[in-house]
Amino acid sequence: METALQIQTALRSHSVPVPSQTWLLSLVQAQSQATLGALIMTARTRILACDLTTPNLLDSAYLSAHTFPIQITSPAATNINEIRLNRDVVVQILDIENLSRSRWDQVEELESIERGEQTRGRQVIRLPTTNNDDEEDNQAPDLGDASDTQQLNTQRTAGGTEGAIQAVARERERQARNATHKLVLQDAKGKKMFGLELKRMDRIMVGTTCMGEKLLLKTGMMVARGVLLLEPGNCQILGGKVEAWHKEWTEGRLARLREAVGADVR
User: Fold this and answer.
1) CATH of 66-100+179-260 among 3.20.20.70, 2.130.10.10, 1.10.1040.10, 2.40.50.770
2) Which end of the chain has fewer surrounding CB within 10 Å, N or C?
3) How far apart are CA 133 and CA 201, in angstroms?
4) Looking at 10-14, 42-46, 116-120, 257-261, which range is the least confident one?
5) pLDDT in tens, 97-116
6) 228: which strand partners?
């Protein structure tokens, strides 16, 4: 019992969701030879990898104090211009979307990746799909027009196809720095809300952010018409990942985007 309390105290001091004593006692019994430090790290890792809505996972007092207050989840909240969180709330990410890029643009990018291609503007660069050096050297890239050919030749002179791929990566990084993301967030009681990136947060990004990742929304966060306004000063990223959710989200993303733009789901 004392060990469980010590683990709870340590997790609370690092803003990690606090598990129930029942859950902790089971962990302590299963790892009876582990040191306190090892138990704390194991508890932290497992909690961040769990679905927060799992029954009896979290301490009841923590659960009550760290979920969305009813005044911001009620239907009437969508008519309120501004209201602030009156408590810290721990949430997990269920979905993320980059609002700075059209859905059709994202569909085209994912389809090109499926074909082993990467795009920059109107130029298409086919990535090597074989380990045979001769085949790689003889494989011609797909080109849009003569200007694309000239651009690719210039890039090859500067550093080969690898240089072109790196240029694509740099362009995507630039776009990511200027992106705005919308997230679906869920608290430990299962209530869902939208979160909108008001100011850029580097760790919030499609391809980087994981489904099931945990965030701590801090007291005073602005809620505008039922939408949480996220920025570095009012939101702490705790980490974590629910493997099954992330795998399903990643594998189904292209189909969801196609459906959203009215394209046929193949």
Assistant:
1) 2.40.50.770
2) C
3) 41
4) 116-120
5) 999 888 888 888 788 777 77
6) 195, 223
